[in-house]
Amino acid sequence: MATSIIGNSDIITVLRGTKVVDAYNTERVEWDSPTTVAVGRASVQHYLALEEETDRQTETEAGRLFTDTSDMRGKIQAEDRFVYDGRTWEVTSPPEEFRLFGKYHHTEMFVKIVVG
Fold first, then answer.
1. For the segment 43-52, what is each residue's pLDDT rounded down to a tens digit?
2. Where are the domains of the chain?
């Protein structure tokens, strides 16, 4: 396995919910018993923290997830969640794969967690 150039120092567990169709024929994702899709290395970098008080007090953290290890390539989808540092995060953008000189370089996506 090659050495990571972006410092994949975090271990994440990628979770995928079950797609179900409700009584109104609308597809949604059920998170009662998610499936573990992959466990691998990534780098989660925080860039925003908000505290809001509307009907209830919530804290939202946003970040970006980077990975350049081949075992994680193509494993994460936009509707997935992942566990990092004991907390479950949501993927909020489609994962984008970047290339350098025609070869796979890394994957990145936006992520968030809401507490409260």
1. 999 888 878 7
2. 10-115
Distance CA 92, CA 21 (A): 22
CATH number for domain 10-115, candidates 2.40.10.270, 3.10.20.30, 1.10.10.60, 3.40.50.920:
2.40.10.270
The two tokens of residue 63 are: 């970040």
pLDDT tens digits for range 56-93? 778 889 999 999 888 889 999 999 999 999 999 999 99
> What is residue 85's DSSP assignment?
T
Tens-place pLDDT, residues 13-53: 999 999 999 889 999 899 999 999 999 989 999 888 878 77
Using a 10 angstrom Cβ sphere, with 0-12 exposed, 13-18 middle and 19 or more buried, the burial of residue 64 is: middle
Q: Which residues of 32-53 are buried (b: 16+ CB within 10 A; e: fewer)?
A: eebeebbebbbbbeeeeeeeee
